[in-house]
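User: Hi! I have a protein structure encoded as tokens and I'd like to know what sequence might fold into it. I'm fairly new to this, so please keep things simple.
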């Protein structure tokens, strides 16, 4: 009986470690140079151009996080150069893009700062 209780306890501890991260964002440094993330970044830049009149070029992804929620949320941090900017300043943006299981993309959040 002790062995069964010990095995049950070990399974309980192992499962707690798995489920404690469910729903939270996971760091994904392996996706920083991924082609699909670069396409999502381009999609977000197009959205920023039409919604905020912010035209960017030379994107460089610096951080990617993912969250599994009825599809996948991608939280992407990137730096870019504003077009027609002669000051040489960079714009840093964080965008959250939801990609449904049917591959429909939607922008959930954007935040940019020029410095």
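Assistant: Happy to help. Inverse folding works backwards from shape to sequence: for each of the 115 positions I chose a residue that suits the local structure. Here it is:
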């Amino acid at each position: 009986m002790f062995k069964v209780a010990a095995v049950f306890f070990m399974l309980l501890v192992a499962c707690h470690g798995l489920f404690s991260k469910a729903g939270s964002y996971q760091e994904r440094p392996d996706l920083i140079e991924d082609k699909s993330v670069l396409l999502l970044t381009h999609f977000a830049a197009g959205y920023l151009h039409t919604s905020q009149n912010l035209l960017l070029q030379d994107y460089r992804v610096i951080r990617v996080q993912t969250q599994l929620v009825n599809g996948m949320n991608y939280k992407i941090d990137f730096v870019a150069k504003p077009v027609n900017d002669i000051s040489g300043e960079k714009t840093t943006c964080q965008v959250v893009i939801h990609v449904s299981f049917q591959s429909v993309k939607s922008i959930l959040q954007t935040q940019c700062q020029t410095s």
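A useful reference point when you look it over: The chain has one domain: 25-114. Feel free to ask if any position seems puzzling.
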